[in-house]
Write a structure and sequence with these properties.
The protein is of the alpha+beta class. It has 8 helices and 11 strands. The chain is 39% helix and 10% strand.
């Protein structure tokens, strides 16, 4: 969630800091201290300068600045460089982060909400915040920490949480499925586009998902009209003089209505699928 805040927050912070400075930073530190003193320390604790929230597992950099472990780890992953967001100090290798070793309180896990994915390593099944395409696992905040502390794990590709993680990865190349081949009607990875599907009509998963949603809406409207037509026929038959033997058409129409309503429910559920890749995959494998 905090990723979208990086550009605004980091740019705002850097305006008050000399970008060319390097630690030890006497002038920069004095500037930051003056900036921090503008807050009412007694009424509000210091917050992480990346997420602008209370510290979660504080991690100190060699230059002395402190951030949430997840915030600085994600910042480095996106930036692809080990740099302090505040003083711009650049580290040639991934520095060993000094973290608060105080045991974190383990609150009782609340039941997962609709759409949440459980952490693969939590006995209490806390909600996952990231999925790793290399480990093929989803992690909560606590179990994601090694991916931000270890240089090897730091190279892994982290994505927004997905339910069926195995379905998000190309079985042939082990890369993320991020494109759609219209020629073969298949979800493919970047390697597939350069090899097996080279020269085919390839579009993004997002664009294909938008097309599928449009088709789903049209089909849903068509099913709803069919339901209304049959309901009208049932009402007409009920208001006519019928013998017991003539009530068979009503039973048949009611069965058709029930089938159409079930199909419409499936279409509505499919249209509400948030993950674009999952929506396209479900559409391809669902007879609607």
């Amino acid at each position: 969630m905090f990723i979208s805040l990086f550009p605004l927050q980091i740019d705002c912070i850097s305006q008050s800091v000399d970008p060319s400075s390097a630690f030890p930073l006497s002038q920069t530190t004095a500037c930051l201290c003056k900036h921090m003193q503008s807050f009412d320390v007694m009424s509000e604790p210091l917050k992480c300068c990346i997420c602008l929230d209370d510290f979660t597992r504080p991690a100190s950099l060699p230059c002395g600045h402190c951030f949430c472990l997840g915030c600085i780890g994600e910042y480095w992953r996106i930036l692809k460089a080990y740099r302090c967001p505040l003083c711009k100090a650049l580290f040639p290798t991934r520095p060993q982060l000094k973290t608060d070793q105080t045991p974190q309180p383990q609150n009782a896990a609340s039941p997962l909400k609709a759409g949440e994915v459980p952490c693969d390593f939590c006995p209490a099944k806390r909600p996952a915040v990231k999925s790793c395409l290399v480990c093929l696992a989803s992690y909560c905040d606590a179990h994601l920490e090694p991916h931000y502390q270890s240089e090897d794990l730091g190279r892994h590709l982290l994505i927004s949480v997905v339910k069926n993680l195995e379905d998000s990865v190309c079985r042939l190349h082990g890369k993320r499925l991020e494109s759609f081949c219209s020629s073969d009607r298949a979800c493919i990875c970047a390697m597939c586009a350069q090899t097996e599907h080279r020269g085919h009509h390839i579009i993004s998963i997002k664009r294909e998902a938008a097309k599928k949603k449009s088709i789903i809406r049209r089909r849903s409207l068509k099913v709803q009209r069919a339901i209304q037509e049959r309901q009208s026929e049932v009402e007409k038959i009920k208001h006519s003089d019928l013998s017991v033997q003539d009530k068979e058409p009503i039973k048949q129409l009611q069965e058709e209505i029930a089938e159409l309503q079930e199909r419409n429910t499936e279409l509505q559920q499919l249209s509400q699928t948030e993950d674009n890749l999952h929506l396209v995959q479900r559409f391809l494998h669902t007879a609607l």
